[in-house]
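Weekly puzzle thread! Below is a chain. First person to post its structure in token form gets bragging rights.
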Amino acid sequence: MIAGVWPLVSLRNAEFLANEVPGQQVPPRVIERMRKAQDKGDDAALAEGIAIAREVLDAVRGLVQGAHLSAPLGRVEVARAVLEP
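Winning reply:
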């Protein structure tokens, strides 16, 4: 089994995935975290999205055989940031 992880880049991105993409689930607590971060600005929201993606990868490690890390909106640097220490 491969886990798919999409780092969120903004509150709008999180809400779009939650409300407009069939089969996607974004927990309310994640939406709330993104909302609080977005209130601090775009850079804070992006940093929170990266932090959430790291948490998800840590949580599924050992439960899956691998992970597919997406580059949200073609932003490869965001996917790379998730993998940085």
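Puzzle host: Confirmed. Bonus trivia for everyone else. The chain has a mean pLDDT of 96.
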